[in-house]
Amino acid sequence: xxxxxxxxxxxxxxxxxxxxxxxxxxxxLPLFGHLDLANIVLLFTLAVVAVxxxxxxxxxxLASFVAVACFDVFFVPPRFSFTVADAQYLIxxxxxxxxxxxxxxxxxAFRRKAREAEQRAQEATFLQAVASAxxxxxTMAQAAALLxxxxxxxxxxxxxxxxxTVDNQLQAVDGGGEAxxxxxQRLADVVFRKGNATALPLADAGDRVTLLRALEGATRxxxxxxxxxxxEQASGEALWTALSAVVATAVERIHYVDVALAxxxxxxSERLRSSILSAIAHDLRTPxxxxxxxxxxxxxxxGLSDEQVATAAALRDQSxxxxxxxxxxxxMARLRSGRIVLRLDWQSIPExxxxxxxxxxxxxxxxxxxxxxxxxxxxxxxxxxxMQRVWCNVLENxxxxxxxxxxxxxxxxxxxxxxSGSLRVWFDNxxxxxxxxxxxxxxxxxxxxEVAASxxxxxxxxxxxxxxxxxxxxxxxxxxxxGGARVLIELPLSMAPTxxxxxxxR
Amino acid sequence: xxxxxxxxVIEDEPAIRRFVRDALRREGFRVTEADGVxxxxxxxxxxxxxxxxxxxxxxxxxGLAFVEAFRIWADVPILVLSARQxxxxxxxxxxxxADDFLGKPFSVAELLARLRALLRRATRxxxxxxxxxxxxxxxxxxxxxxxxxxGEPVKLTPLEFRLLALLLTNAGRVMTHRQLLVEVWGAAxxxxxxxxxxxIGHLRQKLERDPALPTHLLTEVGVGYxxxx
Lengths: 506, 229
Prior knowledge:
A: alpha+beta, Beta-Lactamase, Heat Shock Protein 90, five-stranded mixed beta sheet, disordered N terminus, B: Rossmann fold, Arc Repressor Mutant, subunit A, four-stranded antiparallel beta sheet, 12 strands, 41% helix, globular
């Protein structure tokens, strides 16, 4: 990019070439008579070499002709005239001219190669410096500042870095330099969206242009660099392509460092959350277990009045209810953290609902339950423990909001095909049904923050039901029927596993 | 009871230990206590209890470690106490040889019922097996491969019979999914839990008075099955 030729105007270089020829003539003139004409020819040739080396090809060609003319006029007899007495000097002139021109050509080629090599070495040093500097950068801002600093130092170029944000918007990185103007930002956006196809340099007020290059990462486009440089610098295609590759690698690496950091933080907070949850669970459950056990012992001991037994039994039942509420709340907290891993296994709905009803036996009159299972229901992929919670809560709710002794009917049907269908399970109770104005929001407690709804007891349990059912890809709905309420749960079917028949198994 | 049976209670919560101890003493058991795995292992080395009640959530470490160390040399029944959330620990303890579990909070009556069932089974197996079982209106003779309901034969497939026999001989214990699958279907079918669901369903249809609310072949959700005679 730089060099002696670039710094002088063309006319100046030609004038200098003429001056060299004149000086040579003046210096050699006093030696005339002492030197052989053959040696004088060599001195002129030397001058042409000097011009070619110093001033480049054009001035050297001029110098070649002028040198021959000077030699003819000032040294070949008859002197001070273009006339040549001896015809053999014509051969001298031709050879002298040819030698001068060949030397000019060779010297110019050598000069150009040397200049290119120097430039390439400079570019390589630059790229290496950028790569090694950026490899130490931990943040985008650091990378931007380092890039800008190196571009200034090596080429007097301003460099700006733009990187893609999480939602794939292009954002200028603040590396300490001046903010990019609106045009640059807009063009950078275009380059980012379309790639290098639109990377035309953007002209400046002065003689400088802004060159934009997309940063292509291994998996996707990571950002854009904007280089404010001279027009001549802008034409150095290979260098800027290489630079954008180096910067893209660095930006991608920093991106993954960020991702790794965020993941570590996430894992740490998740671990903290789950250990806090289990500590709370332990601290809440232990006293309730003691309370329940003591009340139960008391209720079963001899020598108490009926009233005392009833009080002990009430204590026991309330502490158990509290325990279930704690379980519901803890499940809700786990589900809400969004990271619950379902332990899916093939489950039979009638079996799970039956086992849930049995676990509720002390608080639920099993004689009220009327199961109407169709023959051969398909198995479903479910987390058995979480779904048990759903069935228990729904059963408890159905029993609580219906007249004592009234029937709770449980039914089921398959909707659609085994590949894409679902299984519906419903629980029908008698009574007034759900409050009409809250029908849509029965499962919403936590969503709307309507703490008041929990006063009459429907809050936590049903909200947990919805969270669990939805985690299974299903849905839950409250419906008022004639003379009662229905809770409908719909769960997706999966392809049933194959089963070998008995003869093959044995 | 002329010679009182000893029950070892391993529980680090003093209040829980207290009401369990009181309940057991009222029932005529002798009670020894330990608050951790180390002291429990020392206690059983001194005198072998007839039964061990073990809390899985011990502070000083893994209740599982006790089950493993103890099962190497003793076949005394182990009843595990656990919170609902410790599902994997519960299953691991049962797979390693614990006999039954009780979720917290538990009623004293339930605890005693489980305890008696385990002691009965221990006596039964010491007396070299039992071939005839009676529950509800069903009687099963394992030796004759005969199942009768009110005197009428009930037809079971060979695998149904094998599953029923396994559950009956282990009545009072919780059998994990894994144990049942390995014993009945073989190790290759260890993950085929759907086999179990189907066959248990069949057995309930054939043996239970109300298959929807079984009283003998009980589901322990997420863990396995328990047969109650």
